[in-house]
Amino acid sequence: MNIVVAMKQIPDLQQIRIRNRQPLLDDVPLTFGNIDKNALEAGMQIKEANQGKVTVVCAGPRELADTVKEALAAGADEARLLIVEEEMDSAQSARLIAAALRQMEQVDLIIMGEGSGDNYSSQVGSRVAQILGIPQVGFASCIEVKGSVVRITRSLEDCEEIIEAQLPVLITVMSDINTARIPSVSQILRAGKKPVVSIEAQELGIDIGELSIETISNLAPEMQRRQIVTTSAAELVRALESEGFGGRG
Amino acid sequence: MDFSLTKEQLLIQKMARDYAEQAIQPALSTIEKENQVPASILTGLAELDLFGLAMPEEYGGADAGYESYVLAMEQIARVSCGPAMILSAHSLGLGAINNFGSREQKDRYMPGACRGEGIASFAFTEPGTGSDPRQLTTTAVKDGNSYIINGTKRFISNASYPGPLVFFAMDSESGKPTAYIMDKQCPGYSVSEPWEKLGWHGGDLVDVYFKDVRIPAENVLGQAGDGYPILQYGIAYGKIGMNSVALGTTLAAYEEAVKYARQKTHRGDPIAKFQAIQLRVANIAMLYESSRWIAYRLGWLANKPKSFKDFAHEAALAKVVVAENAVQAARIAMDIHGSYGLMVDYNISRIYRDAIMGPQVEGVIDMQKIIVAGDILKG
Fold first, then answer.
1. Which residues in chain B show pLDDT less than 70?
2. What is the DSSP string of A105-170?
3. Contact between residue A139 and residue A172 where contact means Cβ atoms under 8 Å apart
4. pLDDT at A248
5. How far apart are CA B109 and CA B181, in angstroms?
6. Is A69 on the interface with B (CB under 8 A)?
7. What is the pLDDT of residues A194-222, one digit of tens each?
8. Could you give the percent of chain A with pLDDT greater than 70?
9. Are A108 and A143 in contact (CB under 8 A)?
10. DSSP-H helix ranges across B267-360
């Protein structure tokens, strides 16, 4: 079974500092988002249960060659890197990833995070499935593969939905689908020896189009402490309830 | 000169940090109260290859180098010194076997210990002996193809766990200090109740009693009568792990100081707005940065030392800086916390206890200064 996990390289969100509400990105290490690591873990678990191969596909600048070692250390068998130095929007990323997937031999299952770790636009999965003409299932919290059928539990706002689809299918996962494994030292050191294919975007022979979205500003939310003083536990509970922390009742 | 870490080193650092936060942090209160690291954590550390991190692949290790070992140990100790102390003492014992053992000894003792199936120890200190090998009282008396061991060792880490023990005794034939290997928990081997230490809770520290312990003659490590180089190795290499623990403690003090300075308010403003607090935070940051690079460098030097004697000089110098910086950093962080820092509910109280351990273990500070000065002023 050939499983592809598409992952996005992003700045390490834990190491971004904010000044004047602007993120300072200089010298911030690059990594994959946590939800992408959940997507990879989901792919790994399916591979371990069904045998097969996990290939990681990423699009982005050249630093990917280093960043992808994280995914290879976490168990991916190989990687395909789509090198693009320019910033891309979701539509461009989707066209590029879809073109790369078309070049690969028999892809049975494509897994992505529900949204990327940085912008969380939640568009790339649906767009790739549309371009490839395969079904897409979102909000997955459990994936089971039996033969050519995949059963997916979807965590929706007020219910769980279980659906089945025929492979090939593209699934986007929620962060609570699993806990991503921590790679061992040996796995980390072996990661650099796994096969990695780097492809310049133009080699794919497609037009990914123009950047159609302009980011005008990206500001951290302003937090203001309310500094409400309560004099009893009952008053504190009432104050929390008035802020919507009273549970679902 | 390139001070940047490789991607692999960054991933090893992150792996240890993630494991410490996900698996060790939830057990911290148990480790502190029961003075024991849960077996599940030791299993987890083994699965991540941390018991054989710097050992050669040929003998079951991950061969990631001592600088990676320092990076990982720092992150473990940042959360809890107990598991880091276990790894430190284990790596010292295992490193001695790797450096001085015969092929047969390495094949026998190293692969299992690298997998964490046994935890290694290194036993030199005795109740009446500090760092002076001439005062050893433990004896190894040759009896046919065996040695019979009698004596007592003090403050020995990991001695309650099964695994190899590297220990020193006076060889009956040469009358000189000699290093030997044995499997712990054999007939005649027993240990005391764990010492209740001020800090580094969870790190097992006991006295070891040898009563007519019989070990095969081939268990001499190196040459009979020639234990001093192995002791010198131990004194030096033990400081890599110890420094890493002190470095992790400094990092923890740093983080607690910054967190408290931002959270604690005075008349509506975080105390971080006061220059008195800012100066203290700056001091801790400077202490951490100086400790960090000297500790990383010591790890790097340990991979290919010019000689163990040269390395001993570097290790002594690094130990003084890193251990004393940890104490200073914890003290300053305590000052930032004010009286709250004395309360066990606040992490800084534990960090303060942990920090004060560093200057006293693996050779007291004054001894290290004598080593450093001796090398500078000789001849």
1. 131, 379
2. S---EEEEESS-SSS----HHHHHHHHHT--EEEEEEEEEEETTEEEEEEE-SS-EEEEEEESSEE
3. yes
4. 57
5. 9
6. yes
7. 999 999 988 888 888 888 888 888 787 77
8. 98
9. no
10. 275-303, 308-337, 347-355
Q: Do A182 and B18 touch (CB under 8 A)?
A: yes
ipTM field: 0.93
Helix axes A90-103, A124-132, angle to 10 degrees: 40
Q: Residue B205, SS3?
A: strand
Which amino acid, residue B373? A
Provide, as residue numbers in chain A, all residues whose Cβ is less than 8 Å from the Cβ of B64: 185, 188-189
DSSP A77: S
The model's pLDDT over A70-111, given as tens digits with 9 standing for 90+, comes to: 999 999 999 999 999 988 889 999 999 999 999 998 999 999
pTM of the model: 0.91
3-state DSSP: chain B helix, strand, coil percent, rounded to 5?
Answer: 60, 15, 25
Say how far apart CA B167 and CA B227 lie, in whole Å: 10
**B315, two tokens:** 């290790």
Q: Minimal Cα distance from B10: which residue of A?
A: A29
Residues of B with CB under 8 A from a CB of A: 7-8, 10-12, 15, 18-19, 22, 47-50, 53, 62-64, 68, 72, 268
- pLDDT of the residue at A249: 46
B35 close to B202: Cβ distance less than 8 angstroms? yes
* Main-chain dihedrals φ then ψ at residue A217, nearest 5 degrees: -155, 155
What is the per-residue pLDDT for A209?
Answer: 86
Residue A17 pLDDT > 90, yes or no? no
